[in-house]
Amino acid sequence: MKPATSHPGDGPTRRDLLARASAGFGLTALHGLLPHDDPSAPPPPHFTPRAKAVILCYMSGGVSHVDSFDPKPVLARRAGEPMPVKVERTQFNNNGTIRPSYWPFRPRGQSGIEVSELFPHVGSCVDDLAVLRGMTASFSEHAQGNLFAHTGFPFLGHPSAGAWTTYGLGSASRDLPGYVVLQSGSAGIPHGGVAQFGNGFLPSIHQASLLKADADEAVRNVAPREPRARQRARLDLLGDLNRGFLAATDGNDAVESAVRNMETAWRMQSAVPELTDLRAESDATKRLYGLDHQDPRTAAYARQCLLARRLVERGVRFVELSTLAANLGGGNGANPWDHHSDLEKGHGLMARQVDQPIAGLLKDLKSRGLLDETLVIWAGEFGRTPFSQGSNGRDHNPYGFSVWLAGGGVQGGVVHGATDEFGYHAVDGVATFYDLWATVLHLLGLDHERLTYRFGGRDHRLTDVHGHVLTPILA
């Protein structure tokens, strides 16, 4: 079936426009036409966007909200008591008694929002944050939870939020992919696999490109292996062949995507080395992010954060960052915030890795006037229980947890939603990932109900048949 335009009813599909062009997609890609001349470019946004780009700081494994952004004094008063309400089944069912936060909370900034000492640097930016304390998830297992958080579905085959973003808006960069996932060193892909960053049934030009932030080559084989003129000649020959194949296959999406991906790869040979060369960045900027930190994991994540800023400056629409395993406290490479035991040590190490770099990113974006047009999201797939697992861990809790957003049309210094007095279940301003992504698309100028793609006989969307824009947090 042909895909529906992202703005159903507004006019001909992209494929229709391509068919009317004299040589189809191959010619437009291979001759590198500017975006406003490209008949394959997506239609304009549904309405005026507040944000141009998204940076997702994904905390895979499940951060404890009651130890970070959701203060619950009752946990200290009733420490060691059994939970007085029904306890839902947990991942391991090794449930203990009420466990207070390992870190004290205190009011921060002019807004007075309480943030724990686990995140002192991010806490200093609280007046720029909209904290969602009523988030919920539909799954409490990592693979399903990660896929659900990224795609709105707990199984393979559906596009990620980043893919939907580039499908709806295209890329503002001609030299870099529209959707980039940054990794460092031993950072693993969260359980659920690369499908979290995939294009699903969308054309493959919308899948994420993985960049190794600290590798000699951020993208494998990005450096030319033959003279540029010879390589250009090869691409031109492939373009001629692909134009013929396109004509024979009625503008096959796979062929169109292959041509465009080859052209992007050609331009990335120059763009990626320039992107990852940080010599032009000042020493003060590098210190702000923590590139000089004594913990190599902090320095590695700091480099990701700095590269994220450089990517959005160059027009990349959606950037996701990846955390590294602390190798202590029960976490693992795929889900490094997953601390079923020794949570104090594990969470402490993980927070040290990301706290200063994320705060540096927020402050740097703000100082450059970029925060107003860049939406920063901090989220994991679920939270953790207010009672202990074993003696010193916490199990998974999808019933209520916290995420936050900053910049890009979001109010700063506000809290939306709440969990009960124990931090167990969301009871006010209850929100889902459908609501989160509906809000993100809204800030990007896209109506989540109109951004659709026809596949398998129906029009699909990121939010499925759900989702409401969280209007109380909009500026």
Summarize the SSE layout with pairings.
Elements: H1 14-20, H2 24-30, E1 53-58, H3 73-77, E2 95-98, E3 105-108, E4 113-116, H4 120-123, E5 129-135, H5 142-151, H6 161-169, E6 179-183, E7 209-212, H7 228-248, H8 253-276, H9 283-289, H10 296-313, E8 318-321, H11 343-367, E9 374-379, E10 383-384, E11 387-389, E12 396-397, E13 401-406, E14 414-416, E15 418-419, E16 426-428, H12 433-443, E17 453-455, E18 458-460
Parallel strand pairs: 1-8, 1-9, 5-14, 6-7, 6-8
Antiparallel strand pairs: 2-11, 3-4, 5-13, 9-13, 10-12, 15-16, 17-18
Helix pairs in contact: 2-7, 2-8, 7-8, 10-11
Describe the structure.
This protein is α/β, with parallel strands linked by helices. 31% of the residues lie in helices and 15% in strands. It has a single domain, classed as Alkaline Phosphatase, subunit A. The chain has helices at 14-20, 24-30, 73-77, 120-123, 142-151, 161-169, 228-248, 253-276, 283-289, 296-313, 343-367, 433-443; strands spanning 53-58, 95-98, 105-108, 113-116, 129-135, 179-183, 209-212, 318-321, 374-379, 383-384, 387-389, 396-397, 401-406, 414-416, 418-419, 426-428, 453-455, 458-460. It has an eight-stranded mixed beta sheet with strand order 7-6-8-1-9-13-5-14, sandwiched between helices. Strands 2-11 form a two-stranded antiparallel ribbon. A two-stranded antiparallel ribbon has the order 3-4. Helix 2 packs antiparallel against helix 7, helix 2 (24-30) packs parallel to helix 8 and helix 10 (296-313) runs parallel beside helix 11. 53% of the residues are buried. The model is unreliable at 1-39 (pLDDT under 50).
